[in-house]
Write a structure and sequence with these properties.
The complex is a heterodimer of chains A (324) and B (250). With 324 residues, chain A is of the alpha/beta class. Chain A is 28% helix and 28% strand. In chain A, the strands form four sheets. Chain A has a seven-stranded parallel beta sheet with strand order 7-11-6-1-4-5-12, sandwiched between helices. In chain B, the strands form two sheets. Chain B has a nine-stranded mixed beta sheet with strand order 9-8-7-10-6-1-4-5-11, sandwiched between helices. A two-stranded antiparallel ribbon of chain B has the order 2-3. The chains are: A alpha/beta (324), B alpha/beta (250). The interface between A and B is large, with 90 and 83 residues.
Chain lengths: 324, 250
Amino acid sequence: MADILVVVEHQEGVFKKNTLSVVSAAKALAGLTGGEVDALVLGDGAAAVADTAAGTGVRKVLLGEGAAFAKYLAVAYAGAVAQVVKAGGYGAVFAPASTFGKDFMPRLSGLLDAPLAGDIVGLEKDGDKLRVKRPMYAGNAIGTVELVGSPLLLTVRQTAFDPAATGGARAPVEKVAVTAEAGGTAFVSRQETKSERPELTEARVIVSAGRGIKAQENFKMVEELADQLNAAIGASRAAVDAGWAPNDWQVGQTGKIVAPELYIALGISGAIQHLAGMKDSKVIVAINKDEEAPIFQVADYGLVADLFKAVPEMITEMKKLKSA
Amino acid sequence: MKILVAIKPVPNPDEKVKIKGDGSGIVLDNIKMVVNPFCEIAVEEALRIREKLTGEVVVVTVGPKEGEQQVRTALAMGADRAVLVEAGTDLDSLAVAKVLAKVVADEKAELVLMGKQSVDDDNNQVGQILAAVLGWPQATFASKIEFVADNKKANVTREVDGGLETIEVALPAVVTTDLRLNEPRYASLPGIMKAKKKELKVVPLASLGVDTTPKVKVLSFAAPPLRAGGGRVADVAELMSKLKNEAKVI
């Protein structure tokens, strides 16, 4: 098959690790259909991103630079990727299923009249036909999907593919000339949620809180536990809707999809939509007053308790463990 | 401002999803169909914009005739009239977007609002594809829409992975709605009565001359691997000891 292009995600020059899982998925496709995997970096002063991408085992990195890419805009990105795909004759394009990939990839699908499957968790061959697997209905069904036409466009669920190794032999970085048309859109501002903690999608441990936490100030206790565990903090939709937690902490069908080694759900009832975002975690702990809460059905260790008593005890226990 | 809102009927997301024995689809018998929650947010936002700027709110859906019920719900919330493009359920995102593009052109809409994703297919594609087909600007995952430049542009705040981002889009544009944009109103009883008399135009798909041959086909459905949960611990001491010695995660 024709070659495969991975569109690298970065935040204004900082490489994002979700791309590593995308590289693995692209290589899985190359293993099934043949073809080489290249990476594309669009940015303004993104040489360091290109260098990181060059060490992930790709054939080469294409670097399209220009002031128009200083801030990410879907219209400019989709247009530029379309140019690279056409010039290089790529048969498939991969991107992370993040708010980045989910924004510009469908636009690319419209520009190229090409089939797109989002959030894929698997790839397989059925005879000479390629099939992809993707979760639907909040993860309660896994669809087997056939794509007709070319190029194939795929966004990848980060938790479903092991990240590619970095720091390998450097592939060549080639500059590509692309024109950027922002087509009636312009960047205005960005409010970054500042945190010293690990990113939700990269954390080994996540402490997550829901309606049961009752107030924003009670997140202090969650933070203290998270500090003891070097954990990221998540939230259910109820906690975000109530204004107790920022939007990008939301775990679930329409928020972040996570699969840490340990997920601790505090005062989260376990709506289908929340479970969709965390049920692939390795170990799940649930603490809830309501023993009927659906979260207990997916929990490895369920504790029916008042979280305002249990969490301080956990913090004390953690401190003991650490000093032991 | 003339606003077109695309909506989709979906199985009630609070009911348990059952997959047919042969994996050919989802069991929909006795499952209530509702307006996709993200689409409801789009309808609400359109109504609020009309309250401020005057204009018209036209609801459109693409799918089987039964979708009329959910379209009536949007009319009962306050939309002015509706278009139902009668089609099967096998249309993929590209086909739906191309059909919507026709309707947008016919209606000369100045703004298209739609949910960022439907909670059945979870695709999150149609709005962006529609924007590309129309050659319009797009703003996805909106949590705030503010009109500027004499209502010729909009500043849209978007829910993105690292926080919030605001972009400016020139109108006409496609904006897809996220959870925090608004709290949709319930249809009032007088609203429901009025909705029965509002115009609902049914357009046969064939009359639009759009090639809807699917490029994305869902061949089968399977249940995800079952998680063996349900384990209990008596107290924090047992929990911490098990996390350390049994699960070995702390």
